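Entry 14. Structure prediction run on the chain below.
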Amino acid sequence: MDYNILQDLALEEGGKIVYLILDGLGGLRMEGWEGTELQVARTPNLDRLASQSVCGLLDPIWPGITPGSGPAHFAIFGYDPLQFEVGRGVLAALGIGFQLTERDVAARINFCTLDQEGKVADRRAGRIPTEENRRLCAKLRGSLNLGTEFFIEPVKEHRAVLVLRGEGLGGDLADTDPQKEGFAPLEPKFLSPESKRTAELVKDFLHQAKEILADEPKANMLILRGFAKYNPFPTMEERYKLHSLAIANYPMYRGLARLVGMDVWPEVGDLKDEFKLLAQNFPQYDFFYLHVKKTDSFGEDGNFAAKVKVIEEVDSLLPQVLELKPEVIVVTADHSTPSKLKSHSWHPIPVLLFSPNCRVDEVERFDEISCIKGGLGRLPAVALITLALAHARRLQKYGA
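Output returned:
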């Protein structure tokens, strides 16, 4: 489907839509537990809502394809992830409010720990505190000497962003992150002739950074991911006539929201604060994106019990959303992050769509197995926004 058609069908008026996105929600059964994280969690409110909704499963990109967070989010916002591609560096920069230009190449930094053999022992440097991150970024800025203008800015915990600024820079580079511990960081490699100079600058940057960080006890090196140049996207207001608000604690997800034209609330304290902000801003917006990060973080850490606990906390806060009486509530994820695998996976994600206009199915529990039987079936995630708009009565009829 050509999703640009929604620009012609979308209506200015209609009901409000709430997207509650539990990052990495999908899971797998793990030894010692009687089901997936979502099956094990006590979720009376989500189950009750599922029994009043239409449910199903979503494939973020395509069956069997493991997605990154960027393309997975673009899909649930209705942007074909195969058409709208952007590196995580751009998202990280936008997430902290960095003003990118068309002369910039951005990459996400992970501070990491190398062992004595020069292999990655910890890809996240023990999830160093953000304050330590700021010190390391300042240390690098004060010592580096590159052949172009550059910026190194902290993001959160072990993550930062590198921006190279200059003429003739391309963003088509492979990651230096080996993606697994026990392997040495990869050499920067350009994937198109236009990015050759960028690769040379990155190689020099990494050589100097290794020397500068050599005396650090944890973050003694860094790895780079998601090289990209900035290209503006059509906004959700332009495509769907939705005045939208993002409530997300992690900078990259605020960057995703900014890229599609949402207003973005500054970082807040905890989940309870996020739900309070939803209620406080409910009269002012048409669409709300409320993001829960720790379901993904604990999945990547392999911490099954902690992921279960976050799901249960979200369930306890869900009545606050129901009290607002939006026309549409969508509860889903961007992708699966099973604690068993400690990484993103290709498994489809459960989704429920609650609306007074929905055709309620027979699903009574919100989990990966129960939702297989739902009325939505198994859909590409990019179709979700169309269903949300339709149930909110925000799409006019197509054709005569």
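The domain at 3-84+233-391 is CATH 3.40.720.10 (Alkaline Phosphatase, subunit A).
Filed with the rest of this week's runs.
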